[in-house]
Amino acid sequence: SIKAVIFDLDGVITDTAEYHFLAWKKLADDLDVPFDREFNEKLKGIGRMESLELILEKSGKTFSVEEKERLASRKNEHYRTLIQRITPDDLLPGIRGFIKEIKKEGIVTGLASASKNAPFVIKRLKIEDLLDTVVDATKVEKGKPDPEIFLTATKQLGVEPAKCVGVEDAKAGVQAIKRAGMFAVGIGDQNTLSEADWIVSAPAELSLHELYQRYQNSN
Ligand code: G6P
Ligand code: MG
């Protein structure tokens, strides 16, 4: 049965996916590059520089490495401004209860986030003690959809991937979970996250009871 649940951060535990969107939107507006929520879906779960590349592709211009680095830090400054005000009240509804329920059952928990800001955000949310391990972008070479980040978390927890569940709001994240050989829970749109084993529209719909059933039926 399930021995570990590994969570994505942005858009799963707290709504920082919205802050990433707002920060990229501001940068794209400054660059006169069209940017909307549909395009933003492609950036979810993807690292900072890769996201920037996707935006700059649409500008039709070329940028030097230095310019790209300057633009990436500008986006990060917008983002950092937005996350300063995060408090424990910004945990998405249901998520604290779900993690506590999991831990009560003796299941271990982990975080697998592509964000270099993840340690800051979990500190602001005061959830460090709910997570048995944390893997952020600074600890891995390859980003999602590569499974490396989830596999690193399973190793740190000492649990085989087949007994691990991953929870994600991004298509690239769900792909990373599946490639790691884990059970994937998608939070969000059915079409975007169709590769997940179980899809809910919000964390409030997560229940350990239903997770057990879905997991069992998939095996
Ligand atoms: C997460 C988010 C992405 C973000 C990435 C890098 O995966 O889903 O939208 O671009 O982290 O975040 P960072 O805070 O390092 O720029
Ligand atoms: Mg996410």
Automatic annotation (TrEMBL):
Gene3D superfamilies membership: HAD superfamily/HAD-like (3.40.50.1000), Putative phosphatase, domain 2 (1.10.150.240)
Keyword terms: Carbohydrate metabolism, Cytoplasm, Isomerase, Magnesium, Metal-binding, Phosphoprotein
Chain residues that bind substrate: 8-10, 24, 43-48, 51, 75, 113-117, 144
Entry note: cofactor: Binds 2 magnesium ions per subunit.
A GO term for molecular function: magnesium ion binding
Cofactor: Mg(2+)
Reactions accelerated catalytically: beta-D-glucose 1-phosphate = beta-D-glucose 6-phosphate
PANTHER family named among the record's database cross-references: 2-DEOXYGLUCOSE-6-PHOSPHATE PHOSPHATASE 2 (PTHR18901), PSEUDOURIDINE-5'-PHOSPHATASE (PTHR18901:SF38)
Name the UniProt record assigns to this protein: Beta-phosphoglucomutase
